[in-house]
């Protein structure tokens, strides 16, 4: 029997470090461990990472040599910024004339507030000529005397002419400090925003370098030969050397690990992921099989950091119930009402959940309201019982209704949960199930308002989008929210460790952005190639790299996002869906009877299904679904044309399809949204609006492939 190699994901949280092992072929969970995060050890969090790895390998009886992939996610960078625990940055501005005015204004970055009462420690010095080594040395000495522990060089227009920033850093190298140039962090225009992003990156650089070195040395000592990867804030991973250069990419990476797990393990192609912990729920989007990212807001200002678009609501499994007990006598007709849940949680209040109490400890329970913290309203309901004081929480309500599945981290005895809610139900004048439903209503409504907005923002198709819950408190929010919205909802497998699973399954990712007015197809292809080369340089297998290119004509931004695995994954297809299962999945997604669905095209990995929707006085619509070998819907198209061809014949056919589907109007030329099914991939070229660059990108996707290899084109005319 062949023993598959394993992928290991480690999630370093504020309290615990979780590690999981996943079969590299079947992607099934093999083992999981939890150890306390070692903040105060002399080796810092590196000690906990190695301890978790050692326990994990012993648990599943595997050797370090079996590890094919190892990655970890950490909140260290985020915490450093939140707590103001950062290095002093020496910022060297470059320029003469008007340029000098602009760069000198950057000294005001020292007024950025990291935490209440803590500002970004920054020392500024200026040089007119970056090639004047004497002036540069004097500037370096000026900022180091002021306490600088890391250097940043910045100059107007360095995105196009980086020589000045490079010259300053070369002269400053003998100072022995970590250093970076602003153009290395982002290649977008905007001196102030670009420099601010680079300065914040530099502020956490020394601490993250020290941690990276410790983790790297510890992993090597443990006998792991697989390269160590680190979770990024956009849902991918990067090589350790890349993290040393741009540690800022790990900020806000906590929620990204969870949605990466949902994307890879749950195979979501369209939906909302809700990661519910004890105190809050992080809400993020998967659209057309990709996580939604945007420029993050840091320290109250927008940055050029591309991070997961996550919205956080203060509702979690431990959220305390808040009530208005009314003004009448509770025992004789006075009626209480549930007004809210959260944002205060039982953890912060220092109270145990009532549903996890021993039944005897709930004897003689009476209802009371308290202020969990001195400034809180006195409307948080608790039970005073024989065993002490207990909080009524969302978890209590979900268990009372039987919503928490067998084996779930948050499951308890349903009868105990019902007993815990009985005093509140009496005060409300209802039965226990109704009281539990009102609690979940109050929590889920808060989450629903955010989900409704995110669905509108991303124009998700609510007929096909799914709600997927992760985190230890998933059962308290997602099932009830699904009932409220009418959307399909489910709890992710192994929801309590979905974040380390996401780390283990994440792909190497890189994003290259350039502002290129009137970009030619050669320039667009060059940006694409740069992104592809970047992920290959970090260990991604070249044959499996996928690149998505977007050209925004309004901002002249060319963006290429490349993803790839560190090894070519040969999926175990022993449990693949059969023809009937794939047809049923397509029909369910199309909301029609299987008899009305037909196969339009296919590749060895994907099958394309379609149907026809007739409309009065309008042309019929032809919705399409692409289903993979596992029976998962990977692509939705509301009205598309499908054409099957080969690599050799594709250029001519695509040229005709694109020409016929291109629209012209006041908004300019709009080429169709084109996606190619090629090998095991769906190449998404929908981000390009100009026909010629679109066709050039299509040709680049097919290069080096056999002429007789099948290709399927899915073409959507843009409205």
Q: How would you describe this protein?
A:
This protein is α+β, with helices and mostly antiparallel strands and 719 residues long. It contains 19 helices and 40 strands. Strand 24, helix 14 and strand 25 form a beta-alpha-beta unit. Helix 11 packs across helix 13 and helix 13 (432-457) packs across helix 14 (474-485). The longest helix is centred in the first third of the chain and has 31 residues, at 191-221. It is globular. The model is unreliable at 328-333 and 570-574 (pLDDT under 50).
What are the SSEs and their pairings?
Elements: E1 6-12, E2 16-23, E3 29-36, H1 45-59, E4 67-74, H2 76-83, E5 89-94, H3 98-104, E6 113-115, E7 118-119, E8 122-127, H4 133-145, E9 150-154, H5 163-172, E10 179-181, H6 182-185, H7 191-221, E11 228-231, E12 237-239, H8 240-245, H9 253-265, E13 270-276, E14 281-287, E15 290-291, E16 293-298, E17 301-308, E18 311-313, E19 319-324, E20 337-345, H10 346-349, E21 366-370, E22 380-385, E23 388-391, H11 394-400, H12 414-428, H13 432-457, E24 466-470, H14 474-485, E25 488-491, H15 498-505, E26 508-515, H16 521-537, E27 546-552, E28 557-564, H17 579-590, E29 598-602, E30 606-610, E31 613-615, E32 618-621, E33 624-628, E34 633-637, E35 641-646, H18 650-661, E36 663-665, E37 668-670, E38 673-678, E39 681-684, H19 691-702, E40 710-716
Parallel strand pairs: 1-4, 4-11, 5-8, 5-9, 9-10, 13-24, 24-25
Antiparallel strand pairs: 1-2, 2-3, 6-7, 11-12, 13-14, 14-15, 14-18, 16-17, 19-20, 21-22, 22-23, 26-28, 27-28, 29-30, 30-33, 31-32, 33-34, 35-40, 36-37, 38-39, 38-40
């Amino acid at each position: 029997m062949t023993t598959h190699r394993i992928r290991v994901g480690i999630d370093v949280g504020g309290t615990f470090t979780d590690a999981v092992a996943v079969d590299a072929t079947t992607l099934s969970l093999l083992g999981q461990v939890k150890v306390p995060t070692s903040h105060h050890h002399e080796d810092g969090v590196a000690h906990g990472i190695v301890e978790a790895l050692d326990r994990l390998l012993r648990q599943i009886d595997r050797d370090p040599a079996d590890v094919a992939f190892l990655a970890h996610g950490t909140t260290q960078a985020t915490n450093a910024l939140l707590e103001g625990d950062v290095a002093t940055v020496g910022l060297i501005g470059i320029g003469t004339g008007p340029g000098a005015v602009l760069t000198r204004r950057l000294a005001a970055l020292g007024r950025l507030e990291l935490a209440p009462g803590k500002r970004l420690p920054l020392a500024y010095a200026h040089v007119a000529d970056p090639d004047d080594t004497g002036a540069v040395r004097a500037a370096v000495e000026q900022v180091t005397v002021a306490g600088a522990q890391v250097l940043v060089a910045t100059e107007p227009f360095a995105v196009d002419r980086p020589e000045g920033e490079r010259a300053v850093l070369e002269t400053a190298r003998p100072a022995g400090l970590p250093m970076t140039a602003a153009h290395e962090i982002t290649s977008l225009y905007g001196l102030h925003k670009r420099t601010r992003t680079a300065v914040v990156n530099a502020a956490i650089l020394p601490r993250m370098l020290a941690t990276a070195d410790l983790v790297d040395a510890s992993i090597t000592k443990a006998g792991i030969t697989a390269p160590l990867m680190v979770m990024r804030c956009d849902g991918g991973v990067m090589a350790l050397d890349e993290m040393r250069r741009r540690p800022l990419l790990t900020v806000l990476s906590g929620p990204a690990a969870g949605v990466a797990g949902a994307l890879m393990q749950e195979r979501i192609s369209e939906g909302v992921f809700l990661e519910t912990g004890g105190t809050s729920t992080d809400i993020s989007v998967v659209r057309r099989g990709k996580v939604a990212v945007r420029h993050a807001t840091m320290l109250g200002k927008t940055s050029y950091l591309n991070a997961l678009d996550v919205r956080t609501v203060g509702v979690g499994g431990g959220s305390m119930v808040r009530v208005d007990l009314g003004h009448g006598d509770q025992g004789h007709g006075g009626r209480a009402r549930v007004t809210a849940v959260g944002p205060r949680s039982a953890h912060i209040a220092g109270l145990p959940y009532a549903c996890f109490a021993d039944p005897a400890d709930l004897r003689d329970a009476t209802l009371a309201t308290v202020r969990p913290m001195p400034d809180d309203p006195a409307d948080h309901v608790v039970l005073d019982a024989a065993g002490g004081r207990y909080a009524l929480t969302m978890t209590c309500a979900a268990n009372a209704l039987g919503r928490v599945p067998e084996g779930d981290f948050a499951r308890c005895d349903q009868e105990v949960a019902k007993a815990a809610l009985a005093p509140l139900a009496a005060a409300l004048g209802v039965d226990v199930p109704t009281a539990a439903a009102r609690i979940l209503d109050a929590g889920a409504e808060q989450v629903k308002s955010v989900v409704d907005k995110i669905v509108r923002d991303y124009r998700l198709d609510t007929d096909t989008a799914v709600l997927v819950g992760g985190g230890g408190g998933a059962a308290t929010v997602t099932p009830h929210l699904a009932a409220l919205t009418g959307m399909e909802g489910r709890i992710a497998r192994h929801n309590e460790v979905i974040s380390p699973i996401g780390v283990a399954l994440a792909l190497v990712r890189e994003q290259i952005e350039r502002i290129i007015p009137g970009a030619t197809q050669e320039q667009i292809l060059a940006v694409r190639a740069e992104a592809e080369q970047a992920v290959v340089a970090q260990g991604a297998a070249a044959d499996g790299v996928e690149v998505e290119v977007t050209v925004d004509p309004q901002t002249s931004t060319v963006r290429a996002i490349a993803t790839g695995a560190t090894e070519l994954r040969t999926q175990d297809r022993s449990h693949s869906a059969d023809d009937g299962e794939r047809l049923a999945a397509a029909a369910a997604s199309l909301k029609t009877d299987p008899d009305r669905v037909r196969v339009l095209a296919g590749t060895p990995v994907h099958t394309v299904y379609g149907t026809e929707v007739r409309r009065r006085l309008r042309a019929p619509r032809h919705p399409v679904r692409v289903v993979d070998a596992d029976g998962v819907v990977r692509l939705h198209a509301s009205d598309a044309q499908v054409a099957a061809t080969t690599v050799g014949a594709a250029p001519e056919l695509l040229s005709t399809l694109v020409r016929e589907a291109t629209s012209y109007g006041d908004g300019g030329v709009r080429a169709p949204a084109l996606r190619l099914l090629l090998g095991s991939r769906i190449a998404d070229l929908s981000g390009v609006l100009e026909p010629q660059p679109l066709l050039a990108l299509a040709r680049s996707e097919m290069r080096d492939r056999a002429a007789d290899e099948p290709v399927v084109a899915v073409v959507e005319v843009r409205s």
